[in-house]
Amino acid sequence: MTLHACDIAWEAGGQPIVRGVTLRVPEGRLLGLVGPNGSGKSSLLRLLAGLRRGSDGAVLLDHRPMSAVPRREVARRLAFVEQQVSTEVVLTAREVVALGRTPHRGAWEAWSEADHAAVSAALARTGMADRADQLWSTLSGGERQRIQIARALAQEPRELLLDEPTNHLDIRHQLDLLKLLQSLDTSCIAALHDLNHAVAFCDEIAVVKDGTLVIQGRPADVMTVDLIRSVFEVAATVREDPENGRVRLDFLPD
Ligand SMILES: Nc1ncnc2c1ncn2[C@@H]1O[C@H](COP(=O)(O)OP(=O)(O)O)[C@@H](O)[C@H]1O
Ligand SMILES: [Mg+2]
After folding, report:
1. What's the CA-to-centroid distance between 16 and ligand 1, angstroms?
2. pLDDT in tens, 130-150
3. 35 CB less than 6 Å from ligand 1?
4. Dihedral angle sign, alpha carbons of residues 23, 216, 25, 164
5. CA 156, 126, 5: angle at the middle one, nearest 5?
6. What is the number of other CB atoms lying within 10 angstroms of the CB of residue 107?
7. Containing domain of residue 16, as a range?
8. How confident is the model at residue 36 (pLDDT cuts 50, 70, 90)?
9. What protein residues have CB closer than 5 angstroms to ion ligand 2?
10. Pocket test for ligand 1, best of 8, 10, 15, 17 (most atoms within 8 A of CB)
11. Closest Cα to atom 16 of ligand 1
12. Domain of 170: which CATH number?
């Protein structure tokens, strides 16, 4: 177990936003974080990334409180792809991806073979190698998103957190990204909106509503008609493929 939230809480403007959430990101697996708009997914990811200190509870990295882990170690091993990224920078796509190597290098250290290899591999894995020399500001929304993911991969993290990483991507790139996340040895947690993508690609799913964790478990165990109705307030049918145990959801108009 690498990343673990233990009864964490966070408040903003006097309102509880994350309330007593306990969840674990299974080692080397993909955990999908789903829940309605405003349920606290982004807030929870920021807590797990150590960007925010909770008002209660703890985030543990390998059983150590994150607050006790040296910042440089956190910066090396944990990567976070946030939803909104600044578009002001005057850097090429490759230079943005290269930022992912910063925590691995000393201030005056020259670029190593390993640094170059990690950047090239990340550009290739996200299908962005042919755009590497284009200015970041001139990329499309989907291309920027893929470059942010490439930056996180170049960091070679042990834990990877992603907030709605399929936003802006066309359907092929959405599926390519989910397959890529599934194939990594990294422990991944990704907030996802498409419930069918979540059940098809994630090893486990964590469902949040009103800042609390409703359930975490295997997709087929978690995604029931009753859960979908109570959390997302829609009617659905759930079919399980007897061959691979994967479930498929269909949403029904009221
Ligand atoms: N800094 C903040 N100040 C006040 N309210 C916030 C702040 N951040 C988030 N919230 C509120 O917390 C709730 C959860 O937000 P968020 O974590 O972004 O949800 P999600 O990512 O699931 O859509 C929302 O109602 C949002 O308005
Ligand atoms: Mg969000």
Report:
1. 10
2. 999 999 999 998 999 999 999
3. yes
4. negative
5. 45
6. 5
7. 3-252
8. very high
9. 41-42
10. 17
11. 40
12. 3.40.50.300
